[in-house]
Amino acid sequence: MAQQAEDQLTGNRRLDPEDAQQALTRVQEQLRRHAVVEQLVQKQEEGDERAPLVQGLLQRQHEAELRALVNSLHPADIAFILESLPKQERELIWQLVRAEFDAEVLVEVADWVRQSLIDTMDRADLVAATENMDADEIADLIANLPPDVIEEVQKGLTPKERAQLIEAMGYPADSVGGIMDFDIVRVRDDVTLEVVLRYLRRQDELPDHTDQIFVVDRTDRLLGTLPLSALLLNDPDDVVRKVMATDYLTLDPMDADNEAALAFERYDLVSAPVIDNRGRLIGRVTIADVVDVIREDSEEQELSRAGMQEEDIFAPVTRALRNRSPWIVLNLCTAGIAAFVASRFEDTVANIVVLAFLMSIVAGIAGNSGNQTMTMIIRALAMGRVTTQNAWQLIKREFSITLVVGTFGGLAAAGFAWVISGSIAIGLVMMFAVIGNMLVGATMGVMVPIVRSRLGKDPAIGSSVLLTFATDSLGFFIFLGLATLFLI
Questions:
Q1: Contacts with 12 (C-beta within 8 Å, 6 or more apart), sequence order
Q2: What string of DSSP letters covers 302-329?
Q3: Contact 120/113 with Cβ under 8 angstroms?
Q4: Residue 431's CB: how many other CB atoms inside 10 A?
Q5: What number of other Cβ atoms are within 10 A of residue 265's Cβ?
Q6: CA 223: distance to chain centroid?
Q7: Among the listed residues 106, 136, 138, the one whose alpha carbon sits nearest the alpha carbon of residue 121
Q8: DSSP 3-state of 450
Q9: Which CATH superfamily is domain 186-305 in?
C-alpha cells in the first residue's frame, strides 16, 4: 500500500494485473455509490430549484474521481476495465479517458468492445486517435472505422506509410502478415559496427523489442541479423559482415500466425524477420505480437469447444442468443436422439428398474474419458505434432490407454452395480457397457478433431457437443442392449 501511495504521488504507473483488478473494483464501487447518492438527491430535492445545481456538482465530482483513477492506469489496464463493464458504464468511462490514451486503448481492447467505443466517438476524435498509429495498428482497426475517417487518415500518411497500410490490409487476419509491423532497423553488411552505433544513437528511440538489427543489401534482400549483444561486445572497427548471424529464422507473410507462435516458443525468439518470395525484408514479428496470438487462440479454442464465438459478455440477450442457440439446438436434437434410443428399451427398464439409475454412470464416465482424449488430441494438433505418419499410432495408443482405464473403471462400476442391485449379472453388464462406451468416447475424442483438421476446419468447434451425443446415445444403446440380451 505504501508503494502504491508513493506511485500516485510521483505519477508513476505500476504495471501489475492485480492493480488493474483492484481498480476495476474501485470503479464499480464508485459507479454504484454515485448512482445511489444521485437517487437520494433527486428524491430529497424534488421541487427545489437548487436540485439541478446540486446534481451538476455531484456529477462533476463523480467524473473527476473516476477520471483521476482511470487515467492513472496503463492503457492495457484501461482496456481491461472497459471490457469488464456493461455498455452504458463502459461508454461513461470511455468519455473520461484522456485523448492521448485513445489510440493505445483501442489497439489493446478486444474486438467485441472496440466497435462500441468507436461508435461513441466523433469524427475529429477518431482521426486524432488514429493519425499517430503505425500502419499495422491502423490495419487492425480498419474494419471498425467509418469510411470517411479511413479516407482522412490515409491523407495524413506518407506514401511509404500508405503503401504499408495497403500491404497490411491485404493479408488475412490470422496470418503472419496480419500481425507483423514495419518498424524495423536495417543496416548494410559493408559498414563497421562503429557506424551502426552512431546511426542508432541518432534515433529518437528504437522499435519495441529490438533484440537484433537486420542486415540487408541495396535491394533490401535479407543477408543476416546483427544481435545487439554482438554489436556491443565486438570491436567497433569490425565490419558487420564479419559478426552478423546467418543462422536465423525467417517467416513468410502468408504463414499462419499460430505457426509463428510455435516457432517463437521452440527457438526462444524475441523477434523474427518477415521476407517476401524474393527474399526482401518487409517487416518483423515480435514476442508481443505472438503473446497476443497465443492468448486469442486459447480463448477461441475454449469457446469453440462449446460451439460459440467471441461475444460481449454484456451484449443484449437477443445478440447472445444468435451466438449460442445453434449448438444448443443441435445439443437438444442429440439429447432427443439419446432419449429415443433409451425409449426403445422401455420393457427392459420396466422389468429391471435399477438400470435407469445406472445409465447415467455409463454415459458420464465415457464422456469424461473421451473429453480427456479430445483435449490431448486438440492440443497435439495445435502444436503440429499430429501427422499422417503418426496418426494411426496415436489412435492405437489412446485405445490402449482407454482399454486399461476402462477395465479398472468397469470393475469399479460393476462392484457398485452389484452392491445396489444384488445381481452379479447386472454388475457384469455394467462392466462391459462401461468399457464399450469408453472406447466409443476415445474414438470420438480422436476422430472428430483429426477429421475436422484434415478438412481444414477448426478441430475444437462443437467437439464437446458431438462427444456428448456419441457417449449418451451409444452408451444407452450398448448398456440397455446388453441388458436386453443377457438379463431379460
A1: 6
A2: HHHHTT-----TT--HHHHHHHHHHHHH
A3: no
A4: 22
A5: 12
A6: 35
A7: 106
A8: helix
A9: CBS-domain (3.10.580.10)
Instruction: Kindly report the number of other CB atoms within 10 A of residue 56's CB atom.
Output: 10
Cell 442457440 -> residue: 325
**Distances from the Cα of 18 to the Cα of 15, 25, 71, angstroms:** 9, 11, 17
For residue 361, list its beta bridge partners: none
Strand positions, DSSP E, 168-209: 186-188
With cell 486524432, the residue in question is 128
- Cβ neighbours of residue 159 closer than 8 Å, sequence gap 6 or more: none
Q: Give the residue carrying C-alpha cell 487476419.
A: 173
**280 is written with which cell numbers?**
526482401
Is domain 12-173 given the CATH code 1.10.760.10 in the classification? no
Angle at 342 between CA 339 and CA 347, to 5 degrees: 140
Q: What is the pLDDT of residues 294-334, one digit of tens each?
A: 887 776 666 655 555 555 566 666 666 666 667 667 777 87
On whether the pTM is more than 0.70, the answer is no
Superfamily of domain 317-487 in the CATH hierarchy: SLC41 divalent cation transporters, integral membrane domain (1.10.357.20)
The enclosing H or E element of 74 equals: none
Kindly list the domain boundaries of the chain, sorted by start residue.
Answer: 12-173, 186-305, 317-487
Count of H-run helices and E-run strands, the chain: 23, 5
Q: Are strands 212-216 and 186-188 parallel, antiparallel or unpaired?
A: parallel
Question: Which three cell numbers mark 384?
Answer: 503440429
Report pLDDT digits (tens) over 261-297.
989 988 999 999 999 999 999 999 999 999 888 887 7
Distance CA 441, CA 478 (A): 13
